[in-house]
Amino acid sequence: MSLKDQITEDMKTAMRAKDTERLGTIRLLLAAIKQKEVDERVVLDDVAVVAIVDKLMKQRKDSIEAFQKAARTDLADKEAAELKVLQAYLPARLSADEIAAAVKAIVAELGASGPGDMGKVMGAAKAQLAGKADMGQVSATVKAALAG
Predict the structure, then answer these.
(1) What predicted TM-score, i.e. pTM, was given to this entire model?
(2) pLDDT, mean of residues 91-113
(3) Alpha carbon separation from 140 to 23, 75, 107, 135 (Å, rounded)
(4) Which residue from 133, 101, 103 is spatially nearest to 118, judged by alpha carbons?
(5) Which of 23, 26, 40, 98 could staple 11 via S-S, CB 3.0–4.6 A?
(6) Strand ranges in the chain using DSSP code E only, listed in sequence order
(7) Position with higher pLDDT, 143 vs 25
(8) Which residues have a Cβ under 8 Å from the Cβ of 112 and sit 6 or more positions away?
(9) Rounded distance, CA 29 to CA 7, Å?
(10) Of 110, 121, 111, nearest in space to 144 by CA
(11) In this predicted structure, what is the pLDDT of residue 142?
């Protein structure tokens, strides 16, 4: 079963259970998937769906941070609940050590030697680690590997 099919089934389950918070988040995710499919006239595979989930999660994290700064804990809690639902659709994340090992291998493979090679290394890292790791953490690891 594809990830998109799983999300659709989870929506049906949430409807039957009358779980409105979960249902709202899943509908939001399905709307984002459908929008991408219509815009690009393609049927998305699991990798593209994971990228959308990743994007929505990043938006939620940014919103939580903004709401906490504005002392709006009610809205921050709502975003945190949505974040928890979205996390279920991501594959298991790599640990910091696994990310460091992957970045080290990419740097060695490309022969990157300094901060000027950051773009080249990040391009390869994004292709290899997208959906498996937080790209902000990957970027910091690449920067550290190229600096030292």
Answers:
(1) 0.76
(2) 85
(3) 35, 29, 14, 9
(4) 103
(5) 26
(6) none
(7) 25
(8) 106, 120, 121, 146
(9) 8
(10) 121
(11) 87
